[in-house]
Design brief:
7-stranded mixed beta sheet
């Protein structure tokens, strides 16, 4: 995708300009607080038999009577001697995660939504302009069409800044993808009272506040192709060369790109993992009760059932199952200054629900129920975190509240001395940020945990 110089300049200004804005950060926070106070919300636990149209079928699948939205089924994943059995969300439809941008008074602003999802732990979170499943915008539930849908359906080629199919949580979904889109419009647009203009710089500041910017916003803004901005434009904004700008805006590292492709293709070619869908009744150690479905052994999550009322949504009352995590996961990115650039340590991560076997993940991706082995990279990372060493970013961020109940995970970036990790397994690679952004433009290569952590990074 080719970005015009004018768009490159606007994106860079929106990212770096801290003095020009329509709404100040304090005004944005007041806007969110007012919505939290005024919007009526009721979310209560219920039982499976009272969960509206949802039921557990005789063949062991949780689904609704219309066979829309999603279902929950059993999955068995077997690789060598390792066998994983767990519930998994099946949602084959592709939804819109879309942000409208517009130049206003010389700066580029993002039209963001104050949105409540049933699983949000703090009601309102800052969400994309539109956040809608295919069932939503086809009105399969009989509700209203999402606001601003027509701008994305009718987007012209020159308006598109980002248009990517990106994966969701592959430990919870089977091959789930959503369409991450950013468009730039020229015409005047009605701003509903649920929406507000925010600059990219402000979004980066708001990301430092726990559980304020939702997962869908984070994945969409992580897809912005900053690596395509011409270096000459940096000079116009007095952005000097430093380790991070050299890593993002430097020339494409062909050797790194080829090495990533080689490792990805090796893993896919020689992968012998077997995956099959099962009845929930056939999962060993799974306890099925009226109020919850859970493993009697250690497991990252259970399934609960909720009755929901949220004012102002396309549908205002409904019931549904939600996945409830046990504890908080940790997603960590280890960075280091190497050869004049800030490089990130990524891991080739295989998960049970991956669209194509393996994706690039963060250095650290630990569920709350995972064991940390002595002398492992995870052990090294946790030692640094517990001693408060090398930390650049450290924030709790919520997972997607449409499917997950009150799930928040710790997202951390540290910058270490490179020589502290002299020996790494073949599952890890040090990569330029430019290289990661290159693979972000290719569907289903960079996983959602790595995209979310990268969304925290600033140019400084």
């Amino acid at each position: 995708m080719i970005m015009r110089n004018s768009v490159q300049k606007l994106l860079l200004k929106s990212l770096t300009c801290e003095n020009e804005y329509i709404n100040s950060v304090s005004e944005i926070l007041s806007f969110v607080e007012e919505k939290n106070t005024s919007t009526k919300v009721k979310i209560v636990s219920t039982t499976l038999s009272k969960c509206g149209n949802w039921f557990l079928s005789k063949d062991g699948i949780i689904r609704n009577k219309d066979n829309t939205f999603f279902s929950i089924q059993g999955l068995e994943y077997q690789k060598e001697n390792n066998v994983i059995q767990q519930p998994i969300i099946i949602q084959n439809e592709i939804g819109f995660l879309g942000i409208i941008t517009k130049e206003i008074e010389g700066n580029l602003y993002f039209l963001m939504q104050a949105k409540i999802e049933p699983g949000n732990l703090n009601k309102i979170q800052i969400s994309p302009t539109i956040q809608a499943t295919k069932s939503n915008f086809l009105q399969s539930h009989g509700g209203k069409k999402p606001k601003y849908l027509e701008y994305f359906i009718n987007a012209k080629d020159h308006e598109i800044i980002v248009d990517q199919l990106q994966s969701e949580q592959s430990s919870r979904f089977l091959k789930k993808r959503n369409r991450n889109v950013i468009i730039k419009i020229e015409e005047e647009i009605k701003v509903y009272d649920s929406h507000i203009w925010i600059s990219l710089y402000q979004l980066k500041q708001l990301l430092k506040i726990d559980n304020l910017v939702n997962m869908d916003t984070r994945t969409v803004i992580s897809c912005i192709p900053f690596h395509r901005i011409n270096r000459e434009i940096l000079e116009e904004f007095s952005i000097s060369d430093n380790f991070i700008t050299n890593s993002i805006f430097g020339s494409k590292n062909i050797d790194e790109i080829n090495l990533v492709w080689n490792k990805l293709n090796d893993i896919k070619m020689f992968n012998e993992a077997k995956t099959q869908l099962l009845s929930l009744y056939d999962l060993k150690d799974l306890q099925i009760d009226e109020s919850a479905i859970y493993s009697i052994k250690k497991s990252p999550f259970s399934i609960i059932f909720c009755y929901i009322e949220i004012e102002g949504r396309e549908v205002t009352k409904w019931s549904q199952p939600l996945l409830k995590a046990f504890g908080k996961a940790i997603f960590g990115l280890i960075t280091a200054k190497i050869d004049g650039k800030l490089k990130a340590l990524v891991k080739f991560k295989e998960e049970v629900g991956n669209f194509d076997v393996v994706e690039l993940g963060p250095s650290i991706q630990i569920e709350a129920t995972d064991e940390i082995h002595p002398n492992s990279l995870e052990d090294y990372f946790m030692d640094k975190i517990n001693n408060k060493e090398y930390i650049k970013y450290d924030v709790f961020l919520s997972e997607e509240g449409g499917r997950f109940y009150h799930e928040e995970n710790r997202n951390i970036i540290i910058e270490i001395n490179h020589n502290e990790l002299s020996v790494l397994s073949e599952n890890y690679l040090w990569l330029d940020l430019n290289t990661i952004m290159h693979f972000m433009e290719i569907n289903n290569i960079v996983n959602i945990q790595l995209r979310n952590v990268l969304s925290l990074m600033e140019i400084n």
